[in-house]
Every structure is written in structure tokens, then in C-alpha cells.
Amino acid sequence: MHLCVTTLPTVENLITKGFLFLRSEFNALYAEKGFDLKQIDVIKGNNRELSLIVSIKNSAAKSPVSAPFGGVTAHRDNLSLTTYISGINLIKNYLLGCGVNKLSVVLPPECYGQDTVAKQVIALNSAGFTIKFTDISHALILDGTSFDYRLKAIAKRSLKTAQRSNLLFAQCFTDAEKSAAYAVIKKNRLQRRYPLRLSLRQIQEVSKLATVDFFVVRRDDLAIAAAIVYRISPDVAQVVYWGNDIRYNEMCPTHFLASRLHEFYTGSVTLLDIGPSSQCGIVNEGLCRFKESLGCRSSLKYTLECIIQ
Predict the structure, then answer these.
(1) Which residue segments constitute the domains of the chain, with CATH numbers given?
(2) How confident is the model at residue 14, as a pLDDT?
(3) What phi and psi, each to the nearest 5 degrees, are found at residue 113?
């Protein structure tokens, strides 16, 4: 077993399959951001077994570069735990040889594949990593069960309010419609004093690599809620941004939006990732209650770190 290391961007040995955030082409969008961006492939015989993309700056390496999660990509199904342990130790030793003294890895939520996540946690622990943060993430399981069935009583009341409010849900197709949807998200973030890390231009860059869906909820032709969703694999869609103009909270437009997203993606994906409800291990209990009321399934999301003194 040996390594092949590539500096991104490159046209050779690209990872083009698997989750969007782990692909070379996605990470190459950040290649000019002031750090070294490397794809490290673990090779056994003539086969690529595992890959990890990291950014390196000031003696620190991290995965993901700029995304909700990173971690290794497995290029074959059912790779053994031994392969993960050997591969991650090889990667760690290579990075140490590059002068790196701090490594951090944010893994996908367990709902993305418990087997793969478990093997990475054990292999990283074996290589000297410890869990720095444990976050909670929420997702809607699209298994054919109706949206209403899993709703808690408070959410059922909110959805009935929304259904009486003459709201209209639509997918956005034109640039003007997408800009209007993004404007609602931007307003929501300003109202709630939350950061808005992605510009519309950056989202449009991602849309060259994967399907990005924009949606809007209107009341009397006024856009009052919106969502932006990445299709990050054939089976998973992730809500990157959603929210409503808080001046219309009494109409419960986000409950309406959630119900329509559930309907829209049922039959095309099996998991609609609604995103984390904590940051750096600090839980937003109100956000958890809201997502739980929608019938979301909870799963853990680990950040592991290795510091070499």
C-alpha cells in the first residue's frame, strides 16, 4: 500500500463520484484561497482504495476544505477496517512529513452511512485522533411515508395554518427567479443575524458540477420563503439554505416549504438532509425542536483532531 499525492486543481486522477463535497472538482473551486490543496490517494496494487482531500496552511491540515463535511472517499464497497486503519496512518505520516502538526477531519453525519462513518472514527482514533466535537444533524427519510404522518402536534397545527394562508410553492428556473429566492434567504439571515457564507455566484459555480434546485414560496406574488438544495449524490439532497421573511412568521411558511420539499424529492432521493442543529458541539435547542417536530431523524456528526506536539 502506498500513496499518490496530487496538488489541485488538476485534470488527472479526479474523484468525480460519491458525495459532492468529497469530489476533486468541487474542492478545486477553492484552489486559489491561500492554502495548498492536496488530494491524497491510497493505492493498493493497481487500485485506488481511499482518497482524502485536505487544505494545508500554517502547519495545519483540514478536511473539508470548505463544505459541511469531509473525510475519506472509499473507491470500493465494503472496504475492511484494516484498509481504513492502514490508509489513514499512511496519510497522517505523509502530512507529518510535510511539516503538518495539526489535522482535523469533519465526518459526514451517520445517516450518510453508519458503516463508513464508524470505520473512519475507529481508524482516526487508531491514528491518534480524538473527538473534538460531537454535533447533531437532522434529515427527513423519504421512504414513501407521508409528510403528515411523522409530524408532531405543534407542527400539524402550523402546517394547517400555512395551508389556510393561500401560499404557493414553485421551483425556480430563470436567473431572475433564482436571484429572488436567494434574496429571501439573504433577508432571513440579516433578520436573524446569522452568517450568509455563500454568495449567489458561488452557488452558481456549484451548479456547474451538480444539480442545484431553487424554490420559493409566495403570497400574492410576494416571495416570503425560499430554499436552495444541492443534490449531493443520486440518493441524497441537502438543504443548503432555507428560511422565510420573519414578518410573515404567523403564516408558518417554512412548515409549508418543508412539506412541499418532502413531496418534491420523494421518489427521486431517499434522504433529504436538513443540516446540523449544533455548531462546535453547542446545541441550538430551538432548532432541534423545530426539526424534530417535522419528523426528522437525528444522527451524530463527528469532528476529530490530531495535534502533534
Answers:
(1) 2-134+302-307 (3.40.630.30), 143-269 (3.40.630.30)
(2) 86
(3) 150, 95
The alpha helices in 31-113, defined as continuous H runs, are 81-97
Note the pLDDT tens digit of each residue in 43-56: 999 899 999 999 99
How many of the other CB atoms lie within 10 Å of CB of 113?
A: 15
Rounded CA gap, 202 and 23, in Å? 16
Taking a C-beta distance cutoff of 8 angstroms, is the pair 277, 292 a contact? Answer: no
Q: Which amino acid is at 91?
A: I
DSSP string for residues in 104-135: EEEPPPGGG-HHHHHHHHHHHHHTT-EEEEEE
CA distance 147 to 132: 35
Strands 212-219 and 222-233: antiparallel
Main-chain phi, psi angles of 91, to 5 degrees: -65, -45
CB 293 within 8 A of CB 104: no
Low-confidence residues in the chain, pLDDT < 50 = none
pLDDT at residue number 11 = 67
First-to-final CA distance of the chain: 27
Residue 82: other Cβ atoms inside 10 A = 10
- In angstroms, the Cα distances linking 243 to 109, 156, 185, 220, 305 are 22, 18, 6, 18, 32
Rg (CA), the chain: 20
Q: In the prediction, which pLDDT does 309 show?
A: 65
Q: How many angstroms separate the CA atoms of 33 and 22, rounded?
A: 18
pLDDT at position 32: 77
Instruction: Answer for the pair 180, 216: CB distance below 8 angstroms, yes or no.
Output: yes
Q: What is the pLDDT of residues 19-32, one digit of tens each?
A: 999 999 999 998 87
